[in-house]
Design goal:
Number of domains: 1
Largest sheet: 4 strands, mixed
Number of strands: 6
Structural class: mainly beta
Bound molecules: zinc ion
Order of helices and strands: EEEEEE
Strand content: 35-45%
Number of helices: 0
Distance between the termini: 67 Å
Oligomer: single chain
Length: 83
């Protein structure tokens, strides 16, 4: 009998700074390049995993790419409003 070694599935994880996102909020998955638009809530392109709100402002958004399953963290939203 050969013991079957189960390969640990390593999920990729990327962090994208909000300042690097297009003005309409869309960006491409760093892994598979699929276009993801967080404003499009009816889209199956992504799945929201977690959101972090600080002082009533979105500080971090964690989503999973619907195509490759990559975890993508969007951070730095507050720094985007540098008027
Ligand atoms: Zn992807």
């Amino acid at each position: 009998m050969v013991p079957k070694m189960k390969k640990p599935e390593k999920k990729c994880e990327h962090t994208i700074k909000a300042m690097c996102i297009e003005s309409d909020g869309s960006f491409n998955c760093p892994q598979c390049g699929m276009s993801i638009s967080p404003d499009d809530v009816n889209d199956d392109n992504y799945q929201i995993m977690d959101t972090k709100v600080v002082n009533d402002e979105l500080a971090e958004l964690v989503i999973a790419c619907g195509k490759c399953g990559c975890i993508i963290k969007l951070t730095g939203f507050q720094q985007g409003f540098d008027a």
